[in-house]
């Protein structure tokens, strides 16, 4: 009960629900076993008060004799196992792919491969960039500068409150080309995609600065929701890049990918941290996986704290409580360490393995 109850301290809703269901189920089973079961036994005839003699040695006595004879060896082996567990825990990861949940023979697995190879990728990732705020007007003629931002790159000399300038479109094109160059990304859509399409309509010639300035007015209303609105929001001063991530890429590491994108946009291209936002299913799934580490540490800490208190009440000795806690620590560490050695990542299901192992180990310790 304590082991599964610790899952309720996780920050992930399915894990919390699983913990509550198992805790309530085990509580009901505990009450039935110690209340209803004895009451039912009273309905049966009283047992014969005789002990059946037997020469057979209980199976557990073999462990007792082995421990008495090779106690030192057992402790050394437990120490080596604990060291291997620590190494395995350091190798534990949370990177996982949707496609790994399904066998290669399943339609879902084959379908995801087809989507990645032929349709541009599976899971979506959005990169949203916010435009610089308009500078405060300190008076003077706003058109006094000789530089026209619609025609050339004026740096910070002049500002126009629109995305459709030469300078800003060049910056967005750099972002698009970088995102498209990443091996983990498939199809990338942005305003640069629309401008490339308009260039094809313009007999293969890219739009010049003047034509670019009139794009919002020139595009028909029924096409704006397809060509412009998904990528540029003049009202909120935001530009959006829609990306599909290749889930079948064996080298995909979501956290590293997100950190790499954010670092390039902020350090290489000069965008402020608060102007870059990464969102979408890829970010949400990555955040869930990363929170598994925190949840696992939190749940393990809670469960061992509760077990220690329970042992103190049961054995009335701190020494015995700590001795009883050791097998539980090694049992949980062995499972997680083995997962690390075998390269099995933490996910929504494997996060519960440690709690289940501890729950069983506690019963064996008390017995």
Quick overview:
The chain is α+β, with helices and mostly antiparallel strands and 367 residues long.
How widely separated are the two ends?
16 Å
Class inferred from helices and paired strands: alpha+beta
Shape: elongated
What does the largest sheet look like? 5 strands, antiparallel
Q: How many helices?
A: 14
| H/E topology pattern | HHHHHEHEHHHHEEHEHHH
Beta-strand segment tally: 5
The residue ranges in which pLDDT falls below 50 over 5 or more consecutive positions are 138-145
Sheet-strand content, in percent, reads: 5-15%
Overall pLDDT score: 79
Report the radius of gyration as a whole number of Å: 32 Å
The amount of helix comes to: 55-70%
Summarize the SSE layout with pairings.
Elements: H1 2-5, H2 13-41, H3 59-69, H4 71-90, H5 107-118, E1 123-130, H6 166-181, E2 185-189, H7 191-201, H8 209-213, H9 215-218, H10 221-227, E3 232-233, E4 238-245, H11 254-268, E5 276-279, H12 281-315, H13 318-342, H14 353-366
Antiparallel strand pairs: 1-4, 1-5, 2-4, 3-4
Describe the structure.
- By secondary structure, the chain is an alpha+beta fold.
- The chain has a domain at 102-133 and 148-252.
- 57% of the residues lie in helices and 7% in strands.
- It is built from 14 helices and five strands.
- Strands 1, 2, 3, 4 and 5 form a five-stranded antiparallel beta sheet that branches.
- The chain is elongated, with a radius of gyration of 32 Å.
- The chain starts with a helix and ends with a helix.
- Residues 138-145 have low confidence and may be disordered.
């Amino acid at each position: 009960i304590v082991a599964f109850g610790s899952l309720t301290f996780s920050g992930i809703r399915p894990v919390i629900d699983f913990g509550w269901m198992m805790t309530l189920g085990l509580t009901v089973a505990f009450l039935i076993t110690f209340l209803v079961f004895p009451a039912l036994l009273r309905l049966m005839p009283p047992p014969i008060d005789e002990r059946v003699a037997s020469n057979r040695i209980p199976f557990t006595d073999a462990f007792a004799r082995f421990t008495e004879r090779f106690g030192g060896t057992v402790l050394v082996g437990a120490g080596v196992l604990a060291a291997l567990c620590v190494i395995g825990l350091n190798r534990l990861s949370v990177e996982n792919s949707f496609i790994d949940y399904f066998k290669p023979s399943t339609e879902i697995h084959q379908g995801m491969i087809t989507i990645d190879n032929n349709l541009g990728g599976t899971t979506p990732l959005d990169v949203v960039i916010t435009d610089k705020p308009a500078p405060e007007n300190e008076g003077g003629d706003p058109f006094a500068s000789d530089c026209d931002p619609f025609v050339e790159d004026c740096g910070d000399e002049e500002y126009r409150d629109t995305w459709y300038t030469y300078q800003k479109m060049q910056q967005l094109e750099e972002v698009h080309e970088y995102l498209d160059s990443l091996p983990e990304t498939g199809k990338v859509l942005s305003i640069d995609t629309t401008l490339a399409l308009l260039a094809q309509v313009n007999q293969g010639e890219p739009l010049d600065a003047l034509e670019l300035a009139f794009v919002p007015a020139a595009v028909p209303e029924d096409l704006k929701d397809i060509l412009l609105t998904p990528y540029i929001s003049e009202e909120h001063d935001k530009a959006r890049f829609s990306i599909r991530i290749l889930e079948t890429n064996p080298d995909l590491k979501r956290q590293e990918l997100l950190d790499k994108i954010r670092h390039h946009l902020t350090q290489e291209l000069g965008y402020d941290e608060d102007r870059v936002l990464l969102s979408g299913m890829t970010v949400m799934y990555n955040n869930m996986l990363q929170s598994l580490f925190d949840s696992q540490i939190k749940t393990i800490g809670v469960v061992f704290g509760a077990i220690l208190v329970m042992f103190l009440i049961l054995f009335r000795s701190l020494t015995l409580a700590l001795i009883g806690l050791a097998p539980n620590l090694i049992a949980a560490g062995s499972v997680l360490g083995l997962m690390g050695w075998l390269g099995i990542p933490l996910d929504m299901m494997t996060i519960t393995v440690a709690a289940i192992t501890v729950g069983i180990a506690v019963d064996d310790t008390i017995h």
